Structure formats: structure tokens, C-alpha cells
Records
---
Amino acid sequence: MLLPNFTHSLNSAFACKNLLCGLLLTLLTACQITPQSPIPVFSYSSYYLWLKTLTQAELTIEINKQKNIISSQKDQKSSIKLMLAHSLPSSPIYQPYQAKTMLNQYTISSANFGNEANLAFLLLLKDQLNAQLLLIEKHKATHKKKQQEVDKLQKELTHLTIQLELLALQLEQLKNIEKNINQHN
């Protein structure tokens, strides 16, 4: 009779132990199943779109705000915001070279920019700045070549003008010589 009671209490202990383990596992997995509310990540593309809606005066205020934040605390987000202002064609501080230089200071990874959407946006911006800078350099080279052609044509025109003046002077001298010959005859 002792043996059945011992077996019964042993089975109860195992059942209780199993129940406790099951309950503990349920509680632990419930913590993992419950979705954690994600920390909101700043969107640089949304910020850029917002910058595009600002007037010149509002842009200037926003730029000064970001410069003040950078000077007081060296904030990466503010530095990127300022870089976006440099890349915006309607901005009073539009300087694609400066924007590219600022963007090159950062290691491009989603960890550095909060998420893949920001990474994609900044990579796209980097590609666009590279393309734009190439076009600017081509434009400068073309402008320089055209200016050299204009300078060459200007020199030719000056040379031809001088020759024309000399020929006009010679013609006048010949007319005077002819006049003198006709007066003596």
C-alpha cells in the first residue's frame, strides 16, 4: 500500500512539475510573441520633401536651426539635415559639392541611418549628386572650350580689324599719291 501512494505522489509531483514548466514556457513565449512597439525612426526622405515645401525665409530659419544644433552638440541627424539643405536646388545654401563632401563623411549603412529606407534614400542622393557633379564638370569643360573658341575668334577679329585699318590707311595714302600725281600733270 505504500507503493501505490508513493507512485501516486510521484506522478503528482511530475504532473505539477510539468504543469509549472508548461506555464513558465507559455509566459516566456508570450513575452516574445507580444510585438514590441518599434521606436520611430526619423525619415530623411520625408524631411527632404518637407524642405521642398518651405519658402526661402523658412528654409533660412531651418538651416540656421540645424547649424545651431550642430555647433552645440555635433548631432549626426542635424548634420545630415544640413547636407540635405545643401543638396536642395531651391536652397539658399545650395552647393552640391559641399553636400557630397558632407555625405562622404558617413559610413553608409542602415545602422547609421536608422533603417533601410533612409539608407536607400541617401544612397540615391549620393548617386544623384555624383551624376549632377559630373554634369557640372562637363558643363564647365564645355564652357571653357567655348570661351577659348570665343577668345580665339576675338583675337582673329582684332587682327582682321587691324589689317583692315592698315589697308584703309594704305588706300588713303594711295589716293593721296594719285591725287598728287594728277595735280602735277
---
Amino acid sequence: MIRISERAAFSLFIFICGGIALYMTMDLRSDVALVPKMVAVLLLIFAGTQVLMDLFPPVRKALSFLDPKPSDQTMGEGAVEEEHEAHATLLGRILFFGWVAVYILLIYLTSMIWATVISLFVYLRWFNKESWTLSVLYTLGTAAFIYVVFVIGFKLTYFL
């Protein structure tokens, strides 16, 4: 049985966009198309899984460990719960887009590595409430990984 919904249509649209992106990079040189191809392949994998979960309920049940929200049967109904959930969802989306905007601004003002260091540390320390040690270790590890892979490995100086 196939269940068609807005969510399934959106997931299918994202899947098609990933396919188009992968197709458009086929004729490019491998060094130019490396990152777009990686992103497109990951997008196809994740969006394809989401399409299967949205269109086919048995697949969603089999892959329930991938679904962050409990199923509709386990949630209670009530206008107060829905209103609170809608407000929390809206607040979360605003916070997410604000976070992305600040990250992009940091990239513009500093560099990719410094923007990642600052935003990851702030996220881990103040939003996720991690310890100072863990926040510093994760931040330095991520910065070192970005430096080694992109600056040393791919010889891209944009990240500095």
C-alpha cells in the first residue's frame, strides 16, 4: 500500500533534486565535481530512505529507529498539546535559520575553520550543555579534521 502525502511529495522532490545535481556533475572534471558529487550521493541516500519511509508504511515500521518522532498512534490528542508543539517547532526553526545565518556571517568575516570552531564551541557549550573539556576537544578535533582533509589533502586554501 502506498501512502501519498505532502511529506512524501517533498521527500520525492528533494530526491529528484539530488539526482539532477548528480547528473549535472557527470561531465565536470573530478577535482571540480568532488564536493557536489559527494553531497548529491549523500542526498540521494538520505532522501531515498525518507521517500521509502514516507510512501510505504511497512518500510517506516521496519525502519522505525530512523524516525525521531513517535508514531501518530502513541501521541495523545489535544488542542493545547498541538498549540505548544507548533510553537516549539516554530521556535526551533527560527533558531535553526538564525544559527545558519550567523554561521554564514562568521564564514564571511573570518574563515571556514574559524567559523566552524566558534559556532561548534558555542553550540556544544551553551546550547547542548556539554562540559568545557568535551566542547574544546570536539571543536579542536573538528578543526583539525577540516584542516587535514581540505587544506593538506585537497590543497584548498579557502578554508584558512
---
Amino acid sequence: MVTVTQRQELHQLPREDIELFWKQLEASDWNDHPECGFVPTGEFCPACKKTLAPSLPHPYSYQDDYLRDTHLTSLLAGGEQSGKSISGAMKFLQTILAFLGEYQGRAAGEVAWLVANSYELTSREFGYIKDWLERVSKLKTSIAVDPGHIIIRVPGGVFTIKTRSADNAQTLRAESPIVTLVCEAALLSFDAYERLSSRVARSRALFPGYGAIFLTSTYPNNIVVSFSYSNISDRKCILVVKNRFE
């Protein structure tokens, strides 16, 4: 029994495993780290250990801090083009990969959700996840995002990543996602958030460490400093502001 003084911690891939996965992806920084694959901003590049950026003023966080965070519910907030989509998508994916490794015998029929106020608002995150997975495995995916799906074969069936629209909160039913990424969360209604919170209850009970909800959103005036780190789209990555709640 979980008491109010206890908190389930998010299960993610061991650090060495996710770093091996990152090295197989497209280079984040073709100039200084062309052979390092995906590189989140942080103290050091996880592949070559070279320093990436100067220290940030409090309370700002590196992308690496967010990816390491173990809260089951978290909000990633920042300004326009700050790297929120790519960070949220990677945290979402590394949680799925951890789940498939830990519960591979029970993963058939389970789902993960990409949610936004409209299907269109999930397109960037859906594209990142689809591209990353296609680089390391053969998958059945949809081209459209309205709705979209990525099917991963597991023992006994399939695990599915789905896009869901929260325009009508009552349609968020019938499934209990093992992880949910909410894109542009500032546009989400309170009813939709309440519905998402109730939907993950089954997953949190059956699969301790999962049933996570990650929210990302744009909040202007949060940009203070920029990094010399390029994301996969070759845009400069601005710092990310993180608030956490459980």
C-alpha cells in the first residue's frame, strides 16, 4: 500500500543503455559532436564526455536533468523553439523502452498516448519518435497523425503508441496508457487533465513505475540564455525551465 509519504518513482532505461541508444541516432551537433548521436544539453556530452555548455543560473535546468527526473508527473516549460518537443519525446520514448524491457511478457495490448488539444499539435513529437524507432528497428507506422499509430511487436501481440485528441475530454477512455506525453499542455482543459489522471490509475497499479504523465508547454518570457547545442532540426537549443509536481 502506498501512503501519502511514499512516491512511486518513474522507471527508465539504465543510463548506459539509453546512451547506447542515443549513439545510434542522428547527430545533434554536426560541428563539435558529429559522431555522438543524440546529445541532450548538460554538463558533458554522454558519448565523448566533452563539456557542452556553461553553467546555468538557478532555477534553470539542462535537458539532461529533465531526462533523468524520476517523477511520474512532470511539466516541462519554456519559450518558443526551446527544445521542449524533442526533450519530451525522448523522455516519453525512453520510458516506453524501459517498460518493454521490464514487462516484455505483459506488454501485448498495452498503449502509450501522445495527447494534445488537436491531433496536429502532436505531429512534431510523433515525427521524432517515429524517426528514432525506425533508425533502430522495423516498425509498422502510420503517415497521418489524425489519428496516428506506431506498432511495436512484442511477445504475444503488439504494443501501440497512439495520438489522441483531447478536444473532447470524454473521448479519452477505454485504455490506460503506461505513459502519456501531453503536447502544448497550456491548451489542455482541466477536464481533459483530470481524465488523463484517472486513466493512468490502472497502469500505476499493475505496472509500478509507469502510468507517467509528461506535460510540455510554451510559456513566453522564460528564455534567459542560449546554448551552443544544436538539436536534430539543426536549430539552437534554448534553455529549458522545469517545474515538477506529483
